[in-house]
Structure prediction request, 526 residues.
Amino acid sequence: MLIKRPDPIPPREVTSEDLYKSRRRFLQQAGASMAILAGSALWPMGAARAGVRIGSPKHSRFSTDEDLTSREDVTTYNNYYEFGTSKSDPSQNAGQLPTDPWSVEIAGEVAKPGRLALEDLLRPQDFEERIYRHRCVEGWSMVIPWIGFPLASLVKRLEPTSQARYVEFTTLYDPKHMPGQRRDILDWPYVEGLRMDEATNPLAFMAVGLYGDPLPNQNGAPLRLVVPWKYGFKSIKSIVKIRLTREMPETTWHEAAPNEYGFYANVNPNVPHPRWSQARERRIGEFFKRDTLMFNGYGDQVAHMYKGMNLKRWF
Amino acid sequence: MRRIPVRTLSFLAGLLPLAVLVEATFRGTLGANPADALINQTGLWALRLLLITLAVTPLRRITGWRWPGKIRRQLGLFAFFYTVLHFAAYAVLDQSLDPGAIWADLWERPFITVGFAAMVGLAPLAATSTTAAMVRLGAWWPRLHRTVYLLGVLSVLHYYLLVKADIREPMIYALILGALLGLRLLPRPWLRRLSPLRRQRMGTPQPVPRR
Prediction:
């Protein structure tokens, strides 16, 4: 089994090229930031790239050896309604989103609620690469080399109380940089959630990069969830809040159309979406459809969590 | 210079979307999901051409122009042509021509049922579009061809039912369809009053420029 190893990140990627080259502009910006930093901690330093250093991630036994979907397709064919509803909108509109500095609010049934700077959230984590299948509820799929760390290790660090049964995630609300949020297509901000056993399943993953680089904004920079056995809409992007709850969180697509999108949203070829079949999928890069696998092919790792559950009822 | 007949022009224009799609397919510029793009684009052009066909009569009544009437049959046939292309693209690219899967889809998914009904409804209109058929059907011909209003509604409904959350685009098509059908309900003299051309023609005669 041969897995493409991402090259270590070259120095030119760490500092944005513009800053690196243009000393004059760098100094101007630095001066401006200093002036503004006095009054505000929200000055966006780098333009489009998150302040995440990838390093050389480890490989994972959970990675698939299927052919990767091209980087171009992964970064230009996106559902990220905050930036517009067409597949090309996110890559066209997400560039200006400030992702550094970034912080995540920790709330609910945890030992120490509060706000965690992204650097502090990431510092203790070892990054690994996970090549996962990604199945969209619309009937297409990709194979994506994510970089990140298991959600379970983050949840453990948050020290859940004995009451914590679910994990709720919230996406950034920033209509100024997210033009899609200026219209009420969905009830912003986007909210997703997992049951505690799902969140601590070894497959549940927090991604900070893909293809060896920090996440592009259109893919959910700087921090996103990846739940490979569920439809893509569960894998919430640009997370600003993690809340541990006693009750099942109300999630955005479920709220928008409860008869079409369930809380669980496990990939299941036997339970059709009310308006289209889920039996098959089009792998991006292929012309014809292929069969969709139960739990997107991750049944060995996740099926036990749903034993005895009626998956037609809890779709 | 000889004038190019309007029907030749509209024939070439009608082929243009197909030419663009074929070219984009072979150049690989349809994006990450070319199969979906082909299915969606043929469907959109079918709907657009159906609406353009439905615009002929109001346009004639408002402007008094005669040329739109000359290309109405051809526009309607193009609408049917792109509808068939749309269905063929779906049958081949989505269902790999599996009759069982298509049959199941037809009965289980309302938007497929509605879209298929629209295509089936357009077929007899295309088949009876010849002058000979018009003569043979006599008074039945306009009755049969008025079903196109219903088929327009079904086509827009088909589009509306398939979008996930952002219904803006199908609503634009619904509004255009509503306007085109609504204009038919207005008394004809009102329509003529809408026309800037008529007013000019009926107003004071324009002085002939002197040499």
Summary: Chain B has twelve helices and no strands. Residues 6-191 of chain B form a domain with the Four Helix Bundle (Hemerythrin (Met), subunit A) fold (CATH 1.20.120). The interface with chain A takes residues 31-36, 93-96, 101, 104-105, 108-111, 161-162, 164-166 of chain B (CB under 8 Å).
